[in-house]
Amino acid sequence: MEALKKISGHGGNLAQLAARCGCAPSEILDFSANINPLGPPERLRGIISRALSEIVHYPDPDSTQLSATLATAYGVRAAQVVVGNGTSELLFALPKVIPARRAVIPMPCYIDYERACQRAGLPVQPLLLAEQADFRLDLATLAAHLRPGDLVILGQPNNPTGCPVERAQLLALCQQQPAVSFLIDEALPAS
Question: Is the pLDDT of residue 43 over 60?
Answer without folding.
Answer: yes
